[in-house]
Amino acid sequence: MIRILVFALIVLALGAGFSWLADRPGELSLIWEGQRIETSLMVGATLLVVLIAAILLTVWLVRLLLRSPYSIARHFRVRKRDRGYQALSTGLIAAGAGDSALARQMTTRARGLLRADQEPLIHLLEAQTALIEGKHDDARRKFERMVEDPETRALGLRGLYLEAKRLGADEAARHYAEQAAEKAPQLSWATLASLDERSRAGEWDEAIRLIEQSRASHVIPRKEADRKKAVLLTARAKQRLDGDPKGAREDAFAALKLDGTLVPAAVIAAKALFREDNLRKAASVLEKVWRETPHPELADTYVRARSGDSAADRLKRAKRLEALKPNNVVSLMAVAQSALEARDLPLARSKAEAAARIQPTEGVFLLLADIEEADTGDDGRIRHWMNQALKSPRDPAWIADGAVSPDWLPVSPTSGRLDAFEWKMPVHVLTGPVEEGGISRGEAAIRSLPPVATPSPAPVPTSAPREPAVASVSPIVPAPGVAPAPLASDRAPAFDPPPPAREPAPGEVVATTIAVPAPSESVLVPETVIVPAPATPEAVPAKTAAAVPSSAAKPSPTPGSAEAGKPATPVEPFFGRPPDDPGVRQPAQKSTFRLF
Q: What is the Cα–Cα distance from 231 to 268, expressed in whole angstroms?
């Protein structure tokens, strides 16, 4: 643009000059070697301008001819460099895409067209190509060569750091990160890597100093730096809690100023205040964080603030938390647990069922099973809640990199990353949304709860008088097809023979041992029941004897009645479980038992 403007000004000046000369005509005479040359002033000025232009053109042509070899060489050199940069660009793209063959081809072409000392990107392309080909030793040597060059030192240190992390050489990775942070403090990866390494080693003071420097130099965003500093302060407070409660309290409060929702910092601050007998301030800190983030650890610390309190006092504090955060699962669970400890079972059941309707998790149903055991003791209902717990999602926990920890930790034990733990639910199968008019899973579990099993009373006969129960030893009537036991006289006399057995009188009730199937339906358990004896029993030696309670005795049929002539049917025992117990498989048909 400036050149065009200068050219236009020159043309305007020439035009103005010629116009000025045209308005002022004159004669121009020149005597040279005896000859007189006369012309007008306009023609002379024109010849002068043409002569100057010719001289300039001649100088330009001469200069062009003299510089032509260099210009030609420069043209080919620029063309070669352009081809080299094109090959370098294509090679970097291929290396990023994982095309090792094309990356190696472009690396060879770029090295032939460009000089490595003039273009350091060739070292990067060679290192990336070696990495995707699996030649890590060659790549490491390339990175070490890049560290020697001040222009590529940071790039080489990052490559060596990543290789050390891949090999698990944490000490070497820490060395490279610290060296990079020292040479280039503006590198965020070096700062974060040094921070993670110091945090993993438990050097909280050094880590806090490093995060403050990074925050001042704007290497890390302010919000992220505040969060990491709060985590570091909480970790140091947790370490100092046992030996220095005052220092732990100061660090915990500093962490809460940076992040008011950090639950571990609030718990540590409250515990430190508890040790200083400042319960009121500790409760205030817990309530403030509870309003923002309800958490089971906050509830447990708040409810159990004083170890000597009764269960009723703990229940009052749990109700206080529920008033601060109503209709919350954690609040309802805290009240239900405290009510169970205080033996207020109706309140515990109502709160636990409300929590199950909101968020049916494993812990809610386990708590309902504990309440059921304390309230009714019914095995069927307890199994029902346990079955629901097995099929329900797990409760939230501290999770970092797939690892679940019972307590909060500042650093992940898997990757060593700072502030990796999050309070969330473990991996589980997601349930679909509740359709309109449908019920939630917790409501369905509550509705399907079986009723409390009550044992049926023994029938009282009215047609025949009740016979007294036999409390003495009675012989056992063998079942048909069962061989009688050998007589005592036929066996070796290892001890004194028993007295002769008494034959049962007609209609007398005898004690008989039958085989009863156990709940697993695979083991026969002997159990003594009362069956009526036949009218004319045969004398058989007694094999077993048992005392029969009077409440279990049945009326014997009178002689000559219709029932006296019928064979005795075995009595099926009751196992003490309700028929709707989900854990017991009902037999397809009535079982028959074999008499001993």
A: 12
CA triplet 152, 155, 157: central angle to 5 degrees? 110
What are the residues whose beta carbons fall under 8 Å from the beta carbon of 413, sequence distance 6 or more? 400, 403, 405
Distances (CA, A) of 452 to 278, 356, 381: 48, 20, 7
DSSP string for 214-248: HHHTTSS-HHHHHHHHHHHHHHHHHHHTTT-HHHH
Question: Are 422 and 400 in contact, with CB atoms under 8 Å apart?
Answer: yes
Measured CA distances, 100 to 48, 127, 131, 403, 417 (Å): 69, 12, 9, 36, 32
Map tokens 């006289």 to a residue: 489
pLDDT 10s digits, 57-92: 999 999 888 888 888 888 888 888 888 888 888 988
Enumerate residues 6+ apart whose C-beta is below 8 A from 506.
533, 535, 536, 559
Q: What is the DSSP string of 118-185?
A: T-THHHHHHHHHHHHTT-HHHHHHHHHHHHHSGGGHHHHHHHHHHHHHHHT-HHHHHHHHHHHHHH-T
- Residue written as token pair 């990495």: 131
Handedness of CA 117, 118, 124, 126 (dihedral sign): negative
Q: Is 485 in contact with 564 (CB distance < 8 Å)?
A: no
CA 574 to chain centre: 47
Report CA-CA distances (Å) from 319 to 326, 337, 339.
Answer: 10, 11, 10
Q: Rounded to the nearest 5 degrees, what angle is found at the Cα of 373, between the Cα atoms of 369 and 374?
A: 120
Order of all β-strands in the sheet with 397-400: 403-405, 397-400, 422-424
pLDDT per residue as tens digits for the range 530-586: 444 444 444 434 333 333 343 333 444 444 444 444 444 444 444 444 444 444 444
Indicate the pTM of the whole model: 0.59
Dist. CA 272–CA 82, nearest whole Å: 69
Report the distance separating Cα 455 and Cα 179, nearest Å. Answer: 79
Beta pairing class for 524-532 and 509-517: antiparallel
Q: Is 546 exposed, middle or buried (0-12, 13-18, 19+ CB in 10 A)?
A: middle
Residue with tokens 């650890």: 297
Other C-beta atoms closer than 10 Å to the C-beta of 107 total 23
pLDDT in tens, 101-137: 998 888 888 888 887 777 888 888 888 898 888 888 8
CA–CA separation, 256 and 231 (whole Å): 10
Residue 405: strand pairing partners: 398
Q: Who contacts 478 (Cβ-Cβ below 8 Å, separation ≥6)?
A: 484, 540, 595, 596
Which of 260, 411, 226 is closest to 269 using CA atoms?
A: 260
Q: What is the DSSP string of 49-92?
A: HHHHHHHHHHHHHHHHHHHHHHHHHHHHHHHHHHHHHHHHHHHH
CB 578 within 8 A of CB 453: yes
